[in-house]
């Protein structure tokens, strides 16, 4: 529902029919968009453990929604060369934001938040739902473009910014640096659907505090060992 399938499956058609580019340029741009998205895919892999799941998904949703809104506005003026250029540029930018938070992270997140005994069926259901929506979007996109034209992009802009982004912020707990047992504890200790995010934040702070205390303890032990070694050296010299 982010809009990647509407753009991906009908990329060359969008460039040729709705942005009024030549067939050759449309195909070249379509190939470039997919190549660019492939090159951007490692960003999410490299950033997921550094910035966490929630931040990547929220940044990705906000970026995709903004890109879709700008593409909608620019596509409404397809007779204007500058607007066509803007639309093409933000289609490329959309292909940057999508792999950051929604290319592979959604499948990872579904398996992380699932209880141990139900991880396999829940992961299977999430993957199945993803492909069902892919099929749904692929089927309705030609009709949507034929009936509402550039306004179709507004649907995805609103979906990203007013549905996906708030849902991630309100309901999706951060699982970065949490063990599978810790994730189970987040949901077990939550009394309603709004508490997992807060519980995950508390757990994360607790883990960080514990890590700091461990580092301080190790530092103190190293200092004590160094002092003891110095004392032994002094005694040996005497």
UniProtKB/TrEMBL annotation:
Residue ranges of the TM segments: 28-49, 56-75, 81-109, 116-138, 150-172
Subcellular location: Membrane
Gene3D superfamilies xrefs: MFS general substrate transporter like domains (1.20.1250.20)
Membrane topology recorded in Swiss-Prot or TrEMBL: Multi-pass membrane protein
Annotated keywords: Membrane, Transmembrane, Transmembrane helix
Pfam families: Sugar_tr
Protein name: Major facilitator superfamily (MFS) profile domain-containing protein
Organism: Exophiala spinifera
């Amino acid at each position: 529902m982010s809009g990647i399938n509407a753009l991906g499956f009908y990329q060359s058609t969008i460039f040729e029919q709705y942005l009024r580019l030549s067939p050759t340029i449309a195909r070249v741009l379509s190939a470039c968009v997919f190549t660019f998205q492939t090159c951007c895919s490692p960003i999410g892999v490299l950033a997921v453990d550094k910035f966490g799941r929630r931040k990547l998904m929220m940044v990705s949703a906000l970026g995709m929604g903004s890109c879709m809104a700008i593409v909608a506005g620019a596509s409404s003026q397809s007779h204007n060369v500058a607007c066509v250029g803007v639309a093409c540029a933000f289609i490329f930018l959309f292909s940057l934001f999508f792999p950051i938070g929604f290319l592979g992270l959604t499948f990872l997140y579904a398996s992380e938040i699932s209880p141990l005994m139900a991880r396999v069926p829940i992961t299977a259901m999430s993957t199945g739902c993803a492909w069902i929506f892919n099929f749904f979007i692929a089927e309705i996109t030609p009709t949507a473009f034929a009936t509402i034209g550039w306004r179709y992009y507004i649907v995805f802009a609103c979906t990203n910014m007013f549905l996906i982004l708030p849902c991630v912020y309100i309901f999706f707990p951060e699982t970065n640096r949490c063990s599978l047992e810790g994730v189970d504890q987040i949901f077990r200790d939550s009394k309603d659907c709004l508490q997992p995010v807060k519980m995950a934040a508390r757990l994360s702070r607790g883990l960080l505090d514990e890590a700091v205390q461990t580092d301080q303890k190790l530092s103190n032990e190293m200092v004590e060992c160094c002092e003891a070694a110095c004392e032994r050296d002094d005694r040996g010299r005497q």
